[in-house]
Amino acid sequence: MADLYVYYKLRAADAPALAPRVRAMQAGLAERTGVTGALKRRPGLREGLQTWMEVYAGVDAAFDDALAAAVAAAGIVPLLAGARHAEVFEDLPCA
Predict the structure, then answer these.
(1) For the whole model, what pTM was predicted?
(2) Span 19-49, pLDDT tens digits
(3) Of 81, 79, 69, 84, nearest to 20 (Cα)?
């Protein structure tokens, strides 16, 4: 199992339209996969853009496909100012 962090930029004016779409997408994912997502935002603006992050803890390889389908169905990509970037982190093994 691993944790998935997905970050992206958006225009501040698009935040009110994007937030409910992402939250609905995450609720649907939780129902289908059992993985509850968190939505975070970097404080402030940089060059007029906000940076948001979706966090999904305890995912397996199959979650990638479920997330991709959910993103496409939610129609969030047109509201972004660039690509979604994903990073995967694993727990360090105990010594």
Answers:
(1) 0.92
(2) 999 999 999 999 999 999 999 999 999 999 9
(3) 79
- The domains of the chain, with CATH numbers, are 2-89 (3.30.70.100)
CA distances from 95 to 20, 88, 91, 92 (A): 42, 22, 12, 9
- Render the chain in DSSP notation, one character per residue: -EEEEEEEEEEGGGHHHHHHHHHHHHHHHHHHHSPPEEEEE-SS-BTTEEEEEEEEEEE-TTHHHHHHHHHHHHT-GGG-SS--EEEEE-PPPP-
Q: Supply angle C-alpha 29, 36, 22, rounded to 5.
A: 60
Query: Could you give the CA distance from residue 15 to residue 58 in angstroms, rounded to a whole number?
Result: 27
